[in-house]
Amino acid sequence: MASSPLCETVVIRYRVSKVIVRLEDELPARFLMSLKSKPGSSSNGKLEFLGGRHEAGENALDALIRELSEEDRSGCLAEAVCVARPEACEMLLDDALHFVFQLTIASEMFEKLNHDPSESLGFRLVEEKDLVVGELFTRKTNGILAALELRDG
CA dist 144 to 64, 84, 94, 121, 140, Å? Predict the structure, then answer.
């Protein structure tokens, strides 16, 4: 009889920091997302949470702040993260360790945001009821949504 291993080796090729941004005092609840710009890719034009890959030596929070500074020219989102210093939950998706932060911002801040066209096709607000795994979102965003459903369910 063959024995089964107690542990499976997981190789983490890269790390990613993402943030789930909720607009304060919005009913129904709305969340800020980025419209992905990746011509020629199946993810082009799909929604994703803001953030991205870590650079060498970065911790999760510093990577998130840098990514937000790149994605939002106004600096509002990066500054909000610096002030709030949110904690991250960790999840393994494929071969990437994701650090997922949560942040609440004032609704008025949305109007001040200025996306960088080299980073995305713009920002969009998505109602909470629409934050379910599906065709609107990138594969990685669907992975985060599925993992969060399992944690909450």
Answer: 16, 22, 11, 21, 6
